[in-house]
From TrEMBL:
Found in a complex with CFAP410, NEK1 and SPATA7. Interacts with NEK1. This is Cilia- and flagella-associated protein 410. Pfam families: HIND, LRR_4. Residues 145-178 are annotated as: Disordered. One of its GO terms (biological process) is mRNA splicing, via spliceosome. InterPro entries: HIND, Leu-rich_rpt, Leu-rich_rpt_4, LRR_dom_sf, U2A'_phosphoprotein32A_C.
Length: 244
């Protein structure tokens, strides 16, 4: 899924973006290989906790508008450079950051931790480990100060080039893999909303003879939406209509 306004409101169970306080989109919930991966975060002025662990995020610039952000979980993403911390330096309430298992951590754990703490001295916990006063003092010596954002290569459309492969360039998914993911995701959403899971034999209404991968994915998404819409009341359907 792509991180759109509708997805944010659904995941946060909020009526408006300025009412979103916590957002959890972890564990491959999103296919984030697009230039505007998490741009919607710029429209979340009151967000306090964001969980994006185990995705494909590489650009943290949209987070620099989240002035109320206190906890940020980014474990196992595609953040290539510690210069991305530049966008977090002006977040006055950021106290918890989980950044481990990203390419930017490199092969020197000490240098990595010292650099993060030098640039984000207000952190109380980094990678699930409490920050000490001694570490903050040592970071002034061993850490590297980040004074500029990371350089990004440009592509023809003017957007930053993604550091991960697009869905179309990734390993081709089989029909069963596409179906399993869509069914799993649908049931995960239904579980959060207090609904019963959808049986496999009632999930797919499209022909398995389709050969175009994009068409199969589109059909899966449509099936998931239609199944969820059956659970909505009149007010819910009106909200969907307005968003469309």
């Amino acid at each position: 899924m792509r991180l759109t306004r509708a997805v944010v409101l659904m995941r946060a169970k909020a009526a408006a973006l300025d009412g979103v306080r916590r957002l959890n989109c972890c564990d491959n919930f999103l296919f984030l290989s697009l230039p505007d991966q998490i741009s919607i975060c710029q429209d979340l002025p009151n967000i306090e906790v964001i969980t994006f662990s185990v995705n494909g995020i590489s650009d943290l610039e949209p987070l620099n508008q989240c002035q109320n952000l206190s906890e940020l979980y980014l474990r196992k993403n595609n953040i290539a450079s510690l210069n991305e911390l530049f966008y977090l330096k002006k977040l006055p309430r950021l106290k918890v950051l989980w950044l481990s298992e990203n390419p930017c951590c490199g092969s020197d754990p000490h240098r990595y931790r010292m650099t993060v703490l030098r640039n984000l001295p207000s952190l109380q916990k980094l990678d699930n480990q409490a920050v000490t006063e001694e570490e903050l003092s040592q970071a002034l010596v061993d850490g590297e100060e980040i004074t500029a954002p990371p350089a990004r290569r440009k592509v023809e459309n003017g957007h930053p080039e993604s550091t991960t492969s697009s869905a179309a360039e990734s390993t081709t998914e089989t029909e069963s893999e596409v179906l399993n993911f869509s069914l799993e995701e649908t049931n995960r959403i239904r579980e959060e909303l207090g609904m019963k899971p959808v049986p496999r034999d009632k999930f797919s209404s499209f022909s398995l003879r389709e050969t175009d991968c994009n068409q199969k994915k589109r059909n899966n998404v449509l099936n998931a939406i239609l199944l969820l819409m059956k659970e909505l009341d009149t007010e819910g359907l009106e909200i969907i209509q307005q968003m469309v």
